[in-house]
Each structure stands twice: as structure tokens, then as C-alpha cells.
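sry for the spam today, last one i promise. C-alpha cells for design, 552 residues
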């Protein structure tokens, strides 16, 4: 009792054996850590290892440009007026003086010519948006071609896909806010596409535009969507994406000492953070330099939007060229159903575009089902070692480029002095022919590279040294590859295609495979069967050749 009493009534003991803080900053850090647990969190994560390769910087460019967009966007919202109320321009840009225009357009012109640094911030914002979408697309292509989307990263692929799609549409909404003649033409195009949707098209149009086009609510609604709704969703997806990158650990290229259970690289703090900080300012500086040199979206040169006019050379930003091309080259077919007209010339492309997007989103799950591979993968594939996947990606890129030509058919016609009808027919034929041709060529190219790798492993690299044998024959001396290169060329796995179950079970009873099982086996043979991969050299083959039998 006496000891207990002395414990409770005696002088309070310090809760920590830590010495008195050296200064007020250390005291503030101790106070914060005692309430937020930052030290333990940092200790667990700041020494996390990240592999070092230039291709991993593509994701960093996405992150940094997103930060640049947010910073410049906040600045622009201080001066932009999201209103379609009509005013008469009386600013410093003489060619527009006395013209009626919306407050949105007038405020954008004022930002460009009246606000100190406003034009540069506008340019940085727009260029950063273009680089952001481009970096996301290239980053996803890197993830696709290297197989980084495989288990356990399928959900992260979906998050990245959603960020790409939301970035595309947010770019369109932001592009439309100045209410100039070019963006107004794009909004009119979008309205026509929405109205072509059966049953719900008019409801979507009324919800999005707030009434008949052009109305008075388009710019305020687009402003809310552009600065609040979509960026908020994207920020949440971005945080979830980064959390999963930390949780699953980063993928890495095959090499000596690298396995599925470790990561070889540099710690996040201080090495990676220092490099990332420098890279951020490098990206910011390059975008600022481009923005200071190259004009983008000069709205004052086309004037305010008028429903009775269409600007020449009206083109969307490049990332919307896919959908634009689909609609431009589609024949103007129409059918009548129950007293209503269905505009197939717009409706069919409008359905193809989301189907392509859905196929991209679910591809990791499709490949996992086709190959029957449910293992975790942390080592990246070299694109040549997955010929079918690489060929599919190349075919999709070729299809995008063909439709991009269709989306700018008028510019190609005027600048290259070609017939616009000839370009349109080329795109229509190319839509079906070019992806197939690119798929076949890319697959054969990958198989050729696999054969070359096998030859290098077995016979070494060419040295250019010619040697004469005792019997008079001239041969070229080959040098054996270093162990690191041998590991790189032979580390990849070679899966076997799924085989159909036996037609009868152990009791001799007939067992018929279902349609899905047969389809899975057939597609699996397409991925891994004969003609889709070159058997990599075995250790026995390498030893036999390098031991002197047939090796020079």
C-alpha cells in the first residue's frame, strides 16, 4: 500500500527519458509527433526503397503537372468570371473594342492583357494540361507494355485509367470556359453528339447545359465541373493510386539480385526525395519556358462565340481527336423507328468510343483470365517477351493515329493539298486494315528480337575480329556476354497455354468443355502457343556451346 501510495501521490515522473529539446523547433516537433505520430509513420516509410529507371519518371511527370495545373488554376480563378451575361468590351485589346461578348470571354481577355503575368499563367495552365494528359497516356503505355498491371496492381490500373479519362474531360471543360468561337464550336459539337443518344440524350443535354443551346448556364456549370467536381475526384484517385504504389511496392526491371520478393534501388529519403524535388522544378521550368515561347489557345484571334459562326480550322485538343475522327469519317446513316430518327452517323461512333475505353479499363482482368495467371508479379516484362500484348498495344496506337488523321481531315487536306474525300476514305479503310497489319508486323518483330536474344545468349556478341582456323576457314570470334546481360536475356518466364481437360474422366464418362473453357484455351494458345514465343535457351544448351562444341 505504501508503495502504491507513493506512486500516486508523489511527484509526477516524466513520460519520456528524452532530454530537454535543444530549441523551440525541436520542441514543436516533439509536440506535433506526440499528437499525430508523424515520427513512427515517417520511420516506416521514408526509408522505403524505390528502383531507379528513366521510364519510372513518366508517372512523376503526371504528378508534377497535376500540381502545376492546380497552382495555376487557383490563380486564374481569382480573375475569371464564369458568367454568360453580355457586356461590351472596352479593354486594351483594340481589335475587340466595342464588340458584345460574355463576361467569361471578356475576363479571359483581361487576364491575358490586363493582369500582370496573366497570359503566362494561362499558357502554363494550358500547356501543363496537355502535358498531363500526354504523360498519363505514355505512363499507361509503359505500364501496359511491361505488364506492370498484373496482380496485385489491377485496381491501380483502373485508378490510372480513371485519372486519364477524367483528365481528358476536365481538359475539354476547361478548354470551353473562355467562351470563344473555337471552344463554342466544340461545345456545339458535343451537344449534337449528346442529342444523338436515344431516349436519354435530351435529358443529359438539359442537365449539362441547363436548357437549350447556347443558354445562360453553360459556362457556370462547366466552371463548377472543371474546378471543383472533377479535380476533387481526381485528387482522391491520385492519393489512392500513390497509397497502392507504396503498399504493393514498386515494380522493377529484371537484373542480378532482383527477385519477386525484394526491391533494389534507392531509399525514398533523402536520395529519391532530392531527385524528385529537382525533377519537379525541371518539369515546371520546361513547361514555363514552352509557355513563354509558344502561344497556345489565343482566344483573342478568333473572337467571342456566336451561334451563327464557325471558326476555320476548328480542332479539339489532340486527346479528343480519337472521338472526333470517329464521327467525322462515319457515313451519315439514319434510320427511322416508331416515328423517331436515329442518327447512326453520330450514335455509332459515340458507342464505339466508350467501348474502347471500357476495353482498356478491364484489360488486366481479361489477360489474367485468358492466361490463367493469378500469381503476383513485381518483375517487369520486356515488351519483346510478350509479343501478343505488345502487338495489341501497337495496334491500338495505330488505330488512334488513324482516327487522329480523321479528326483533322480538313487540315490534312488543306496543308498537304489532298482531297478531303480521299482522306476520309483512307481513314474508313484504315480503321479496319491498319491495326491488323500493325498487329502482325509487331508480333513478328518481337519474335525476331527474341531469336536475336537467344542467339546472343548462346553464341555471344560479335566482336568484329576475324580468325583463320588451321584448315583455312575464316570465322568471326564471338565474346561471351557478361553474367548480368545473360540474366537479363533469360530471366523472363515462359508460360504454357491452358490445355482443355480430357474428353473423359477417370471413370470413362464423357466430359464436355463449355464454350468459355474452349474460348479460354484457344485465346491462351494465341498468347503462349507455338508461333507466339521463342523458347529461351536452357542452361544445358549454353554450357554445350560455350564448352567448345561449335563455339568460336
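last one done:
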Amino acid at each position: 500500500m505504501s508503495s502504491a501510495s507513493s506512486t500516486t501521490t508523489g511527484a509526477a515522473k516524466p513520460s519520456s527519458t528524452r532530454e530537454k529539446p535543444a530549441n523551440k523547433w525541436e520542441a514543436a516537433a516533439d509536440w506535433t509527433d506526440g499528437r499525430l505520430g508523424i515520427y513512427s509513420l515517417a520511420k516506416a516509410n521514408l526509408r522505403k526503397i524505390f528502383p531507379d529507371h528513366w521510364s519510372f519518371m513518366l508517372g512523376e511527370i503526371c504528378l508534377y503537372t497535376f500540381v502545376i495545373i492546380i497552382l495555376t488554376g487557383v490563380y486564374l480563378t481569382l480573375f475569371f468570371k464564369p458568367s454568360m451575361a453580355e457586356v461590351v468590351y472596352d479593354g486594351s485589346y483594340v481589335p475587340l473594342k466595342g464588340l458584345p461578348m460574355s463576361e467569361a470571354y471578356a475576363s479571359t481577355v483581361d487576364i491575358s492583357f490586363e493582369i500582370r503575368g496573366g497570359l503566362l499563367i494561362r499558357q502554363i495552365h494550358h500547356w501543363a494540361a496537355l502535358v498531363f494528359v500526354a504523360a498519363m497516356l505514355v505512363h499507361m503505355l509503359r505500364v501496359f507494355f511491361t505488364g506492370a498491371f498484373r496482380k496485385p496492381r489491377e485496381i491501380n490500373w483502373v485508378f490510372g485509367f480513371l485519372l486519364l479519362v477524367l483528365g481528358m474531360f476536365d481538359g475539354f471543360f476547361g478548354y470551353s470556359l473562355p467562351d470563344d468561337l473555337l471552344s463554342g464550336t466544340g461545345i456545339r459539337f458535343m451537344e449534337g453528339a449528346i442529342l444523338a443518344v436515344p431516349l436519354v440524350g435530351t435529358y443529359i443535354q438539359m442537365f449539362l447545359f441547363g436548357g437549350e443551346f447556347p443558354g445562360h448556364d453553360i459556362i457556370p456549370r462547366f466552371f463548377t465541373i472543371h474546378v471543383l467536381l472533377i479535380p476533387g475526384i481526381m485528387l482522391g484517385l491520385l492519393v489512392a493510386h500513390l497509397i497502392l504504389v507504396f503498399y504493393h511496392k514498386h515494380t522493377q526491371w529484371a537484373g542480378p539480385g532482383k527477385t519477386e520478393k525484394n526491391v533494389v534501388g534507392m531509399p525514398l529519403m533523402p536520395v529519391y526525395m532530392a531527385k524528385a524535388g529537382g525533377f519537379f522544378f525541371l518539369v515546371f521550368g520546361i513547361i514555363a519556358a514552352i509557355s513563354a515561347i509558344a502561344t497556345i489557345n489565343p482566344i483573342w484571334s478568333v473572337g467571342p462565340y456566336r451561334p451563327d459562326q464557325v471558326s476555320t480550322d476548328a480542332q479539339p485538343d489532340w486527346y479528343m481527336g480519337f472521338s472526333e475522327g470517329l464521327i467525322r469519317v462515319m457515313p451519315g446513316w439514319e434510320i427511322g423507328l416508331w416515328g423517331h430518327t436515329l442518327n447512326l452517323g453520330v450514335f455509332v461512333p459515340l458507342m464505339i468510343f466508350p467501348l474502347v475505353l471500357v476495353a482498356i479499363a478491364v484489360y488486366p482482368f481479361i489477360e489474367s483470365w485468358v492466361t490463367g495467371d493469378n500469381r503476383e508479379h513485381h518483375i517487369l516484362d520486356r515488351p519483346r517477351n510478350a509479343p501478343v500484348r505488345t502487338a495489341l498495344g501497337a495496334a491500338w496506337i495505330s488505330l488512334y493515329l488513324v482516327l487522329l488523321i480523321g479528326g483533322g481531315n480538313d487540315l490534312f487536306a488543306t496543308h498537304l493539298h489532298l482531297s478531303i474525300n480521299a482522306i476520309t476514305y483512307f481513314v474508313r479503310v484504315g480503321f479496319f486494315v491498319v491495326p491488323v497489319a500493325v498487329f502482325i508486323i509487331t508480333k513478328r518483330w518481337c519474335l525476331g528480337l527474341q531469336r536475336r536474344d537467344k542467339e546472343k545468349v548462346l553464341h555471344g556478341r560479335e566482336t568484329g575480329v576475324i580468325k583463320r582456323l588451321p584448315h583455312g576457314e575464316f570465322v568471326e570470334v564471338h565474346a561471351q556476354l557478361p553474367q548480368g546481360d545473360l540474366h537479363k536475356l533469360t530471366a523472363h518466364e515462359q508460360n504454357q497455354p491452358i490445355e482443355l481437360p480430357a474428353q473423359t474422366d477417370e471413370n470413362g464418362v464423357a466430359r464436355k468443355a463449355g464454350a468459355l473453357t474452349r474460348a479460354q484455351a484457344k485465346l491462351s494458345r494465341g498468347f503462349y502457343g507455338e508461333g507466339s514465343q521463342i523458347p529461351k535457351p536452357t542452361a544445358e544448351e549454353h554450357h554445350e556451346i560455350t564448352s567448345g562444341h561449335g563455339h568460336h
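The beta strands are 49-50, 86-88, 100-102, 266-267, 334-337, 340-343, 461-468, 474-479. ok im logging off now
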